[in-house]
User: Which sequence fits this backbone?
């Protein structure tokens, strides 16, 4: 179960809240990027897209050691959102979207242990590109030194999900207006080879199978 | 041109910065949801997905009048991100993503003028669901009273775009490793009618054409 804190207690739209830890994992593990929110030294918020990985109840984020948002100072908020469709209602007011979102709050810890650093970076790479860690050149000592890695506990998190048709006002159901959902789907295109790739290097199975799961 | 402020000055990855106002419009006008960052009263950041609309150099966001994030107090950050593909490099370190993102900073203004409120709400609805404003029941006075609308100037904004194949280390190009881009595409599915819809109400053209632009 996800614990309830002042930051994760459902406010509006309580019926959209999901409280299982597996609900949180499902949203995170279906995502490719998150939006990381930090408070700048001047007290104003910044939200930036970035990659992430998960191992158990820890989220990993990485960046350049020069990046100010990953110094492990202060609280952050990490949000992962899947937009699943547009909810087309009989009134403007009841238009909505179908979505799944996870919001994680906490103070990240800078990861210094070499083994955890490798594991965290692997989790981030494998989230974006499963199978690549074992297929490409691994990080050099110099590359590792240039990479900041932080760990964020999943202890304080909330999940919201909206699915299904519109919730219209009782009196609007009689209107001669089409209502329903326009689903939105993300899909992989055909892999595009780097023009610098020598002839004869084929798309490996772990990439080809992702682009065309039906084949 | 987008102006440069301490918050929008490109830090790392300067080559990804776009500086034209039309670049900003292009990213915003291709999006459906944004991630809104605010600083909570306890000083910690919150990032939530929400809908938006644009009219000229103003972004509109709406929410319940009970929602704490839209009271027009304090600075916010609004980020719109399109993930266009995974950049599969010859090394773990050079893996990346192709994306377009816009980040807008500012202090929102609560919109009270009835005409601007209607225009802003229309822009938000039309961003999600073009054509619906003229096809469905318009907001009642009561619904309008329950809706908070804020306007955020696009004066302070930055845009980043990454496209194309990986940037690998010179010595890695000789590796027998496939490299390139796995494109990610968002597409509309077939409209799903509300089960409560009476027989004989067809999907209107402005929705059907969106789901199947080729037909």
Assistant:
């Amino acid at each position: 179960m996800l614990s309830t804190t002042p930051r994760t207690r459902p406010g509006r739209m309580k019926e959209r809240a999901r409280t299982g830890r597996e609900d949180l994992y499902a949203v995170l593990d279906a995502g490719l990027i998150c939006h990381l929110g930090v408070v700048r030294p001047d007290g104003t918020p910044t939200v930036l897209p970035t990659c992430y990985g998960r191992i158990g109840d820890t989220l990993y984020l990485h960046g350049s050691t020069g990046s100010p948002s990953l110094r492990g100072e202060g609280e952050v908020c990490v949000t992962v959102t899947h937009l699943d469709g547009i909810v087309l209602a009989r009134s403007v007011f009841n238009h909505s979207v179908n979505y799944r979102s996870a919001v994680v709050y906490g103070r990240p810890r800078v990861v210094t242990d070499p083994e955890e650093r490798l594991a965290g970076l692997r989790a981030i790479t494998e989230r974006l590109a499963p199978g690549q860690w074992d297929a490409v050149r691994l990080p050099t000592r110099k590359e590792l030194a240039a990479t900041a890695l932080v760990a964020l506990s999943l202890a304080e998190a909330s999940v919201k999900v909206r699915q299904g048709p519109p919730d219209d006002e009782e009196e609007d159901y009689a209107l001669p207006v089409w209502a329903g959902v326009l689903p939105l789907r993300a899909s992989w295109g055909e892999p595009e080879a780097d023009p610098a790739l020598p002839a004869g290097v084929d798309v490996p199975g772990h990439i080809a199978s992702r682009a065309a799961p039906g084949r």
User: Anything to note?
Assistant: The longest strand of chain B covers residues 76-88. Chain B has a mean pLDDT of 93.
